Amino acid sequence: MSESQNKNVPPPATDLPSSEAEWRSRLSPDAYRVLRERATDAPFSGRYTHPGAAGRFRCAGCGAELFDAETQYDSGSGWPSFTEPVDPEQVELREDRDHHMVRVEVACARCGGHLGHVFPDGPGPAGERWCINSTSLELDPRSTDTTD
Fold first, then answer.
1. Residues contacting 37, CB < 8 A, separation 6+
2. Is 59 a catalytic residue?
3. 3-state secondary structure (DSSP) of residue 91
4. Catalytic-role residue among 59, 62, 111, 131
5. How many whole angstroms separate alpha carbon 75 and alpha carbon 85?
6. Residue 109: partners with Cβ closer than 8 Å, 6 or more residues away
7. Of 21-35, 70-84, 90-104, where does mean pLDDT reach its minimum?
8. Sheet of strand 56-59, all strands in order from the earlier edge strand to the far edge
9. What's the whole-model pTM score?
């Protein structure tokens, strides 16, 4: 498969899969496992673990714009980390009590796909670390601000 986690270009919001069978046929096995089954990438295994790219990160499930590469930093955690989402309306926060912990899960507000977790130990004004699975992201280098 190409570098993209999707088998196809992300569909418009009105054309999202309506069943898990449709999601399974559209996503790679790894992307399905992370986005739909709430799995986690192994630490330091993802292609976006270290900052350096320019552009915007989109949901690998639906193409929603989630994080700007300028807000990515190296947290040393083994996962891509950001100080904030592009727009808080693009993400949904949920209580996660899996693995005998209480955490805040981050999901895509558009498709419900699992992205990762947000923790209160990051830099920046909000002090948040948005710890996101590489598998749940696609980098769009063209979506940087081009205004003069």
1. 114
2. no
3. strand
4. 131
5. 16
6. 64, 89, 90, 91, 92
7. 90-104
8. 65-68, 56-59, 137-140
9. 0.84
Give the homologous superfamily in CATH for domain 18-143. Answer: Peptide methionine sulfoxide reductase. (2.170.150.20)
- Report in angstroms the alpha-carbon separations of 117 from 11, 16, 40, 44, 89: 25, 23, 10, 16, 16
Residue 5 gets the label, from left (phi > 0), alpha (psi -120 to 50) or beta, of alpha
Q: What is the pLDDT of residues 101-148, one digit of tens each?
A: 778 999 999 999 999 999 999 997 899 999 999 999 999 987 555 554
If pLDDT is split at 50, 70 and 90, which confidence band does 74 have? very high
